[in-house]
Design brief:
With 277 residues, this protein is of the alpha/beta class. 43% of the residues lie in helices and 21% in strands. It is built from 11 helices and 10 strands.
Length: 277
């Protein structure tokens, strides 16, 4: 049935870990209760031999599912996903990062949700974060469930866990596809959907295990966040999604996260913004 056909969209670049990449592909190709109809894999520039070896391993196992597209030079996540989405054959698209692990029923649950809710443009879910070992204690990142709560949440924070989402390609293309914006490509996309009155949703279940030990804290302290965050807040303010007070509050929050010492940032993420699970 067409309603059970979907694409998975993934980007990979040279700095990724081959072992983590292998585990990620295993979780979406070997262990899912419903296999993807296609996996669109964008090589964002040349890769290491180890990463190419992993790709070839799964190409041999799933030659009819995996479609590999190569960019000559590294373009960044926004442009890689922008290009990759145009290669996706099906309207329902699942996103996946190259070092995370999808739970076995993730695709099944999201397919059922999207088929039962044709008015929803994007659905996501909860994630559990771990440092290096998936068997260690994890931290839960929950998201708002009702549309009203998601709208409130979106005025301050990203309302969807990017690595968990399933979206309708036609709706994403209607608002301009992915656009480059350092570390905020997904947040900017959801913001454009919401500004254009598209609906989002979250399933109140963990769908993906997310690896955060690979420079996560350092990236959160990157000053590139500030430039992108300013751009995003200006977009939301100009489109009357947030008011002036909310814009100022959001900018202050980002400056705080970027400029506090790394150990403070780590404490905030582990003890305030996440829950132990």
């Amino acid at each position: 049935m067409e309603e059970n056909k979907f694409s998975v969209l993934m980007s990979i670049y040279i700095k990724e870990n081959a072992e983590f990449f292998d585990k990620s592909l295993e979780s979406i190709l070997d262990t899912q209760t419903i296999k993807p109809t296609e996996l669109v894999l964008v090589k964002d520039g040349p890769l290491t031999k180890e990463l190419d070896k992993v790709i070839n391993k799964y190409l041999k196992k799933y030659p009819k599912i995996i479609k590999v597209f190569s960019l000559k030079e590294n373009q960044g996540l926004g442009k890689a996903l922008q290009y990759g989405l145009l290669q996706c054959k099906y309207d329902l698209v699942m996103r996946m990062d190259s070092d995370d692990i999808s739970l076995p029923d993730r695709f099944k649950k999201e397919l059922e949700f999207m088929n039962n809710n044709p008015d929803i443009s994007v659905v996501g879910g909860y994630i559990e974060e771990f440092e290096e070992n998936i068997n260690e204690e994890k931290r839960l990142k929950i998201m708002p469930i009702t549309y009203e709560d998601e709208l409130k949440y979106a005025r301050f924070r990203n309302p969807l866990n990017h690595v968990t989402v399933c979206f309708r390609k036609k709706d994403v293309l209607e608002v301009g596809n992915y656009q480059p914006l350092d570390y905020l490509e997904d947040h900017y996309l959801w913001s454009r959907l919401l500004v254009n009155k598209k609906k989002i949703a979250n399933i109140p279940e963990v769908l993906v295990y997310v690896r955060i030990g690979n420079g996560f804290n350092k990236r959160r302290g990157n000053k590139k966040y500030i430039k992108g965050w300013k751009f995003l807040q200006n977009y939301l303010y100009e489109n009357k999604f947030i008011n002036f007070f909310e814009k100022c509050r959001n900018l202050l929050g980002m400056y705080t996260i970027v400029y506090v010492p790394p150990f403070v940032r780590d404490f905030l993420y582990k003890n305030i913004l996440r829950k132990k699970n």
